[in-house]
Amino acid sequence: MAEIDSLLIVLGMAAFFAGLVDAVVGGGGLIQIPALFAAFPSLQPATLFGTNKVASIVGTASAAVQYARRIAIPWHVVVPGVMAALVGAWNGARAVAHLPADLIRPVVLVLLVLVAIYTFVRKDFGRMGVVSHGRKTESAAAVVIGGALGFYDGFFGPGTGSFLIFLFVRFLGMDFLRASVSAKFVNVATNLAALGFFSVNVDVLWKVGLVMAACNLVGAVTGSRLALKHGAEFVRKVFLVVVGALILRLTYDVLTAGA
After folding, report:
1. Of 257, 259, 256, which Cα lies nearest the Cα of 103?
2. Based on the number of CB atoms within 10 Å of its own CB, is 215 exposed (0-12), middle (13-18) or buried (19 or more)?
3. At what angle do helices 45-68 and 176-201 cross, to 10 degrees?
């Protein structure tokens, strides 16, 4: 009993920091998923991914609500992105049972490196929004982005929020703060669809997930308030830090997988 309580305390702390980071730029899975694998090394990955979704969806939804109270939401982007993400994430979760994640990890690593370089070199990238590309064009782009990243999140996951933010800034001309707001709504959809699949098909650790969800919620509220207070430049800096951490983590995973 004492060991279980200690595990819940550690996992709760991890969930708090994951919620804080995820509310600002995404990437909370970088903290939460390794913590779950370390705590329950003998359990099936699908069980731990499902448990992670229980914790993540509460914090992500809370951050979305916090942002919505203060920032104008581009619904013509968010709604089609959410719908596509629901379909993509469900199918991505189904693919976990058929495709090894090791196949995608090196590709994601290369993409993250390119994202980091582009964001760092373009000092003005995401600081201010640009002229609209037209509502129909932006809605169509949101469907493609939501569907693709939804599948990725259901299947693998790390960096989903960061990729969403980057793509919204790069292709839809948003600033980092508005992109982070939009990404939260799409990320809620990906978490919801993946959790729906995992809850029916695997044994999710509901008690652990709910404890982590409460801690993730507190972290998400803290993180969203920090982002709203400090603006797009703050989000950009945290984005670069989180992407850098993701690169290091995935590099380690790739190297150790080949050992």
Report:
1. 257
2. buried
3. 140
CB 37 within 8 A of CB 29: no
Q: Is residue 174 classed as helix, strand or coil in its secondary structure?
A: coil
Backbone φ and ψ for 173, nearest 5 degrees, come out as 70, 25
Phi-psi region of 43 (alpha: psi -120 to 50; beta: other; left: phi over 0): beta
Number of domain units in the chain: 1
Q: Is 127 strand, coil or helix?
A: coil
CA-based R_g, the chain, Å: 17
Token digits of residue 51: 């448990």
Residue 46 structural domain? 2-257
Identity of residue 46: A
Structure tokens at 33: 């998923």
Q: What is the mean pLDDT of each run of 10 residues along the chain (259 residues)?
A: 74 91 80 86 85 91 88 91 94 75 69 74 59 78 94 80 87 86 92 89 92 94 88 80 81 74
Q: How many CA atoms lie within 13 A of 198 on its CB side?
A: 29
According to the model, what pLDDT value does residue 130 have?
55
Q: Using CA atoms, how far apart are residues 166 and 183, in angstroms rounded to an integer?
A: 10
Contact 19, 150 (CB under 8 A): no
What tokens does 238 get? 């945290």
Neighbouring C-beta atoms of residue 98, cutoff 10 Å: 7
Name the amino acid, one letter, at 206: W
Predicted TM-score (pTM) of the model is 0.80
DSSP structure string for 6-35: HHHHHHHHHHHHHHHHHHHHS-THHHHHHH
Give the C-alpha separation, 75 to 250, whole Å. 33
